[in-house]
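Newbie here. three chains, one complex. Structure please?
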Amino acid sequence: MTAESVSASPVRFESVTKRYPGADSVAVEDLSFEVPAGEICVLVGPSGCGKTTALRMVNRTVEMTSGDILIGGRSVKEGDPARLRREIGYVIQQIGLFPHRTISQNIGTVPALLGWDKERIAARSAELMELIGLDPEYGDRYPAQLSGGQQQRVGVARALAVDPPVMLMDEPFGAIDPINRSRLQNEFLRLQAELRKTVLFVTHDVDEAIKMGDRVVVLKKGGHLAQYATPTELLMEPADDFVEDFVGADRALKRLALMRVRDVDLWTAPLAQAGDPSEPVRTAVAAAEVPYALLVDGENRPQGWLSERDLAGEQVPATPDSSADPLIDADSVLRDGLATLLQSGSLYAPVVDARGRLTGVLSVEIVSDFLASDEASESELSAAERPHD
Amino acid sequence: MIEQLAAVDQSFFTDRSSGNCIQDNKLFCPGWVVDNYDRYVDPTLQHLVLVGSAVAGGFLIAFGLAILAHRHRFLQTPFLAGTGILYTIPSISFFFLLLPITGRGSLTAIIALTAFNLQIIFRNITTGLRNVPPNVTEAARGIGLTRSQILWQVEIPLAMPEIIAGLRIATVSTVALATLAVFANGGGLGTEIVTGSNITFKTGIIVAGSIAVIMAIVFDGVLLLVGKLLAPWKRKQAIS
Amino acid sequence: MALPPPPLPAAFLSLFGDAFNFVFSGREAETGGVTVGGTSQVIELATKQIEVTLLALAVAILLAMPVGLWLGHRQQGEFLAVSAGNAGRAIPELALIALMAAAIGVGLVNLVVALAILGIPPILTNTYVGISQVDRASVEAARGMGMSETGIVRKVELPLAVPTIMGGVRTAAINIVATATIAPLAGILTLGDFIIARNVYGDAGVLAGAILVALMALALEGTLATIQWAMTSKGLKLNRS
């Protein structure tokens, strides 16, 4: 069974309401949104906003009071809940690995429920362990012998065992330390780039929501939908004061983590090679966006900034007064590019590709223009394609 | 009016006791109990002494063992195994294993019941000590408490709920078991069950058994109260 | 009754020697005439004691465990399950056996019922506690993956609760085998007969009986501990160390 053989299904909430018996207020009220197939939708909100309840109604571990949830057009209410759950991956914060079963047996739980034969289960377990980057020898170990991060990887593998079209993840990385959390998030996004599941992901951490989500559902207390938007829309146009407050005062800066340097319009600087006549360079500098010329070598690699004094002679010198540093990697995120600029105290920095060739110049002004622009959302990438390091 | 009531009362009892209840060995003859309650005083007191001595002895020994095992972790396993064997050997068998050494009598019964208790109390004390959060002992060490100060001022008080729980289990079990002391000539309520032809006299069995059950409940309640007094933080937690 | 002489090593050893002889060769009854003790009678009484113990334990398990599993799985009835355990400890074994014999009559069935009553509380309590203490995350994950409720009990909760449940079974077994020693009071002759009928078997018989009962209890406990070890998943043993 390969990742491509089962396509993901869209998930659609239709006026879903949950009222717990005996409670005076509703947990989730009239919630409607649709997650397109193959996207990650993050449900985020403060505690008590009903995000986990909303998630759990999808696999009917909580039964909805009214409304409906459709997976690939089929209501989850049809048929046996146990059968439904076998077709939906489920990952929870506490992981819930079975301590009495080996890693292979844990991963093979649902295949065994579906009656797969032993060889097929073993093959699938091995395949998934490779996918999550766990040495096959771990297959015979028990959960107690694994670190927290490894256990959570196994939790994800177990949920993927029968290649479900939909995955539910309830604060899957909430109990992991920050460094490992970031690593697991990146790993999952890499997996998702390959698998393209429809994922519903619950978190209370807005940074995680922005990082992981193709779309974000912000819920208010009482399960009201506050906003359903892409991360960029959320950061640029919070629907109301609640969302604005929840997203945080630094929402502008958060947007910088969503873009790579190569994806913004960089400035161009006049270029010169050693030995070129100085006169045309002086003329170009006077008319350019960047008021300094860059010395480059034959491969277009920046060698240094040329000052007025450097250009005072007949020819462009081979060793300019100031070096080209800092150089910014075109693949780094805009936030890191800005940080590099601010740390070095320079207004401009050359941007280079993986081979060190110049692709443009980043300035503080470009960053502030980007934040002011309304079109940034158009160039948005899916969560899996976005930079995540 | 009062006299009349008294007369009714009197006939109520005489009616019962003068009937065929005892000869028929009915399940329960209240009249007989009223006439014979005094014969239960001594066995009850003996029973109290047996239970009190066995639990106190068991607690002292188990406490010492637990402190030792807390200091030297390697002792935990042999102590658990040793007390486990003493716990497993049935008391009635233990009485007679002691026969060549201590003979018959209440001392033999007390030793056997003490041996039974050790494991229950030992296990609870060590669990209680082990469950003290490490950050608390760490903080105590950090502010300069010595090892024995940490033990007496931090670890034992925090382990108190578990310790009391162990004492409750041990006490209740011992009250029930001590009825067997009669086989070792150790006295107690068991005498009122098996001595002479009593073994078939239902009322006698029920009365002696009931006294034992009531004694167990009272001990349990008292220890519950003691536990609440010794661990006031738990009480507050439970209320809030 | 005169106290025995002070425990001089010789007297001490000779009594154990008598007990040894009693088990393997038998001796003349105190009451005269017949020969008592010896391997055949020892085996007969020991077999009876094992028989009633295992029967009563089986009855207690069959009655208590399903209730404990059900309550523990539903996380309900904690008060009932825990109070049962507490109340069970307070039952005086001697009074229970004597009353059963006097009120209902002597015989194997009555004895087994009385012994099973002693075994039910620890099994019920420990089964409840063992099941309800299983990590809820494992149960939620199992449910979320589409396991049926009976599947959850069978494949997740029960294996994880084995150590606690077996702890209850062991407590019950110790209590039952100990109480089966006084079964002769209820008309079933077990090894306890050597202990109780001192007027027949003499001090050698009493000591022999005490040793045999102790060995039987230890053997039973050892067997159950081994069964528990074998039934406990390796993953759990790692967890606890």
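Moderator note: Confidence is low (pLDDT under 50) at residues 1-5 of chain A. Chain A has 14 helices and 17 strands. Thread marked as resolved.
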